[in-house]
Amino acid sequence: MTLLGIDLGTTSVKAAVFTGDGARVAAARAAHPTARPEPGHAEQDPHDWWSGLIEVVGALGPALAGVTAVGVCAQVNTHLFVDDGGAPVHPAITWQDGRCGPVAAALTGRLTPADRARVRGGLGTVDASHAAARAAWLAAHRPDAWARARRLLAPKDWLLERLTGTAVADPLSSTGLLAPDGRYPDWLDLLVPGLRAMPAPLADPASVAGETTGAGGLPAGLPVAVGTMDAWAALLGGGIAAPGDAIDIAGTSEVLALAATPGGSAPGIVTFPSWRGLHVHAGPTQAGGDALTWASAVLGVAPGELLDRAAGADPGQVLFLPQLAGERAPLWDPDLRGHWLGAGFATGPAELGRAVLEGVAHAARHVLGPLEAAAGRRADTIAACGGGAASDLWCQIKADVLDRPLRRTAERDAGVLGAAMLAALATGDAASVDELAGRMVRVDREFTPDPRTRGRLDDAHGRYLAAQRALAPLFRPTGG
């Protein structure tokens, strides 16, 4: 028995075939672009997603012969509006897109206090990445497209429809769109008339959505799990299975999550509905690996070389605020902007590169405090996965800034592994998340905090927060 996991991420489609004990048999990825036609806009063409899927399936080749089930996960807070025939009426508006900030603020004012408490897992506001804000913006600014829109699909739901003929949403990906009873609430129509009927039907992430039809080059007749968001799949692929388990998912953005017993919340933290015994609080930031990619381009130094240079710089010399496109957790402020601070004549690419690595770690530490408050417990150790975790230097910097040991998973693409694990659950190959984690998740290295950097990095974190507070008003919209 082998399992196929597919992750439709922000920068690429990734897929891998795994054995039942989590060993990778084969893997492939295909990049897709993000268009930024105007300041604050970030769009993707779903045709690029599908082309990427066809490419990775073709690259996996003979490894697909023994696959018995398929699992999928994908980026969330990216929204695609389609017509009756499933054709997109507008490019997908991604989670990085901030154009809907003013619209979102106006929509929040329409909600009762009770309804606000249910938006986005308890955040209490309709933010710029909420589906209602995207729908309202499309209706106001692209009325021709809105007139043709009949359904609202997350990337994962759209991918399921292409593979099986049926679009299926899941409650974990739909946090912020659901009432306490697990259904789409009436207040969605209060925000945008007709919105409540547009999302796909809901089902458990570890249930079977349908069977492959042969589309995309996959063999026909394979059961496909409903799947969920990439971050939740990465929790599973990172071994999060019990209260106290914590993870740092180092992808395009940085996502921290902590499992706890039911109950608890904190400002700025997303609380997911309990699922199969897992009660998870999470904080997604706006920039992680994207900040390194940006800095690499600005400095004219390849990412690998910039990491090598950064290794020779002392900690805490230059501050970097990674809010290049605003911030999500714990601030949820689309107007924040990125900065390098404290540079002098002796500052070069090494110091600026290290500042970027530390800045992303400081953003993670900013999330960790309220995350632990929501969970009512300390994260004693933190699992680490994602592309950013491939760097030993960055893992060590995060361990030092967070003052927590980091245990890096052997499978960096934890979302792909988690998608495969959902396929195992959906087809009855495992009875529980805990059983799967023990069988399929491995740790390859632990990074422990260096006590010699403690004082310097604590001081740097205080300056990071102070700089963020001081600079935020400078970038508020006029009249805001």
From TrEMBL:
Keywords: Carbohydrate metabolism, Kinase, Transferase, Xylose metabolism. It comes from the Bacteria. GO terms for biological process: D-xylose metabolic process. One of its GO terms (molecular function) is D-xylulokinase activity. Residues 306-426 form the Carbohydrate kinase FGGY C-terminal domain. Pfam families: FGGY_C (PF02782), FGGY_N (PF00370). Residues 3-237 form the Carbohydrate kinase FGGY N-terminal domain. Its EC number is 2.7.1.17. Belongs to the FGGY kinase family. PANTHER family: SUGAR KINASE, XYLULOSE KINASE. This is Xylulokinase. The lineage of its organism: Bacteria, Bacillati, Actinomycetota, Actinomycetes, Pseudonocardiales.
